[in-house]
Amino acid sequence: xxxxxxxxxxxxxxxxxxxxxxxxxxxxxxxxxxxxxxxxxxxxxxxxxxxxxxxxxxxxxxxxxxxxxxxxxxxxxxxxxxxxxxxxxxxxxxxxxxxxxxxxxxxxxxxxxxxxxxxxxxxxxxxxxxxxxxxxxxxxxxxxxxxxxxxxxxxxxxxxxxxxxxxxxxxxxxxxxxxxxxxxxxxxxxxxxxxxxxxxxxxxxxxxxxxxxxxxxxxxxxxxxxxxxxxxxxxxxxxxxxxxxxxxxxxxxxxxxxxxxxxxxxxxxxxxxxxxxxxxxxxxxxxxxxxxxxxxxxxxxxxxxxxxxxxxxxxxxxxxxxxxxxxxxxxxxxxxxxxxxxxxxxxxxxxxxxxxxxxxxxxxxxxxxxxxxxxxxxxxxxxxxxxxxxxxxxxxxx
Length: 398
Ligand code: NAP
Ligand code: MG
Description:
- There is one protein chain.
- The protein contains 13 helices and 16 strands.
- By secondary structure, it is of the alpha/beta class.
- It has three domains: 1-111 and 297-398, Isopropylmalate Dehydrogenase, CATH 3.40.718.10; 118-140 and 182-283, 3-Layer(aba) Sandwich (Isopropylmalate Dehydrogenase); 142-178, no CATH class.
- Helix 1 (17-31) runs parallel beside helix 13 (387-397), helix 3 runs parallel beside helix 5 (95-103) and helix 12 (347-365) crosses helix 13 (387-397).
- The site of NADP nicotinamide-adenine-dinucleotide phosphate (NAP) has 17 residues, from helix 10.
- The site of NADP nicotinamide-adenine-dinucleotide phosphate has 17 residues, from helix 10.
């Protein structure tokens, strides 16, 4: 059989531990036999990041900006214990943080839904994609414990020395106070990534804040989204038959719980943090959650939402069989191949990406699963297999 051809290479970012092992298995078992795979390989494994002074992460992100599509394996974000384990020169920053800073993107997360694994919210028939604004607000706050009595002021100083000042609160006793910020530039990048992604995936876009209470801060988010929609996206949305919808955050939560899914839900930083964990646990497993970083320029980086599955890796090193779920990593590959196919106009490659996802879901629906899905899949006859045999079952269908 002639292999499916590619034009432009994907940026391939290899990673760590169990996911590094799965990475190679996915390529060998379900991609390379069918696709004449073209990638530019960057080894983001912790050892190589350390050897290159983390330059490899920066190079991979810059190359992604040039080529347009990347696929990334999960990577270790070092902590004190990893310093000794890997004998590191420095406690390198999170690769995802470094890449996000270079691409200036927004992360979209969506569960992979399969029949037989019912979300805890029974009306969700289609996946809900969460877009979290990953900049500012409470994650970059300034805060004090106040020993009252005391007055807390908020002061803005302009370059010409002019100031504006408001009293936040007159403390009569002890208390707490916090300062938050965000920038128009970051909110605009977030908004355009969300509009772009909704168009790409032909799904409605919902956005929610608390603008009735936060009349300047949250209201600015609402205004930026609305202005950008009216100016740049209204016609495109109408042509695609999708809608943009703004509502209050509490109303959005209530509606989401009664919806059938199938839309993109854009959220401020804190709301997105909380709601993405809600979504992941309501859908059963982190191993079934996909993730893609979309930059406002339309650059895409696909990955799994989970980490390097360290506990399984240590068992693997001891020679034990592990049954780690490769679905989210496999969907990172299929997502990247599909996007590459669309950009390069390669219908055969696009069809392959669709088929790869379809037969993976089918494999689970027919009862061939990895161990993590045992308690989730509602079916009598189940066969729990190791990662390699799971991938081989998919390849057989391909
Ligand atoms: P994790 O790797 O996501 O694993 C947490 C637990 O979730 C696992 O021990 C396993 O539970 C279960 N799990 C996750 N993915 C699974 C899969 N594909 N199949 C089966 N079970 C799965 O999170 P972590 O242990 O907190 O972090 C490990 C390392 O990953 C850390 O060094 C962290 O820095 C890194 N990390 C990287 C990324 C990224 O690159 N995007 C994201 C998060 C974390 P059981 O052990 O109970 O089976
Ligand atoms: Mg969280």
